[in-house]
Design goal:
10 helices, Rossmann fold, single chain, 44% helix, 21% strand
């Protein structure tokens, strides 16, 4: 049975959701029963469907009918970290609920892709970060980065924190949507040399989120075999 994975990023707005959706579609078309989860989500609630647009994208990609409380146990109606939501809205992040729902979802699917919020050091509680959550879920992670200048610094810091928390890294995926960033070939070379982590591939800017489009792009550009090993 394939191992479940946690999708994290080197920062917020690196395109984790789009990368996760592409991976989910590709895994599903490879015949794997894959479920999705975003433990914490934040932002302006959608009027229809799921509160979180990210969950809407992931659930559509996975073609799942799991209830929202399993897919996204906690939603904060402001664009902020769970810790900031705690301070500003007095809504306490519920770690036991997250882990309970994660266990339930794990039993419903052969494999889960769990998308984090921001980067690995996004604060959830005073001394509990996304890295603690990954550790508690006992999952390896895929790190999504972009190509803009500064990406190498962010990727190295992310890898170092994963080492500190003893989180296995499956690989790095480069989201190549910046028009003025590093050349992917050079970025891949430098990231692999500096982090000793494999780059599983890069994906171009995606404007067509249809199944066929995502499957074509990810099958061509991402080393799915290494991702599943």
């Amino acid at each position: 049975m394939p191992e479940s994975l946690f999708i994290t990023g080197t920062d917020t707005d690196v395109g984790k959701t789009y990368v996760a959706a592409g991976l989910v579609v590709t895994l599903r078309k490879m015949g794997i029963d894959v479920g999705v989860m975003k433990p914490f989500a934040a932002g302006i609630p959608q009027r229809k469907g799921f509160k979180s647009e990210d969950i809407e994208i992931l659930a559509t990609a996975a073609q799942v009918t799991d209830p929202e409380l399993l897919l996204n146990p906690q939603f904060f109606p402001i664009m902020a970290s769970p810790y900031t939501a705690l301070k500003n809205l007095k809504i306490k992040p519920n770690i036991p609920l997250i882990l309970k729902q994660f266990k339930k979802l794990s039993k419903l699917h052969s494999m889960l892709l769990v998308e984090g919020m921001g980067g690995v050091m996004t604060p959830i509680l005073q001394n509990y970060f996304v890295s603690n959550l990954i550790k508690d879920m006992k999952l390896p992670t895929i790190i999504v980065t972009r190509t803009r200048v500064g990406a190498i610094n962010h990727a190295i810091m992310t890898c170092k924190m994963c080492e500190k928390y003893k989180i296995p890294i499956k690989g790095i995926i480069i989201n190549n949507f910046d028009v003025d960033g590093y050349h992917v070939k050079e970025l891949k070379r430098d990231l692999e040399n500096l982090t000793r982590v494999s780059v599983l591939g890069s994906v171009p800017f995606i404007d067509d989120m249809s199944d066929n489009s995502l499957y074509r792009i990810f099958k061509k550009n991402i080393d799915m075999k290494s991702l599943l090993n």
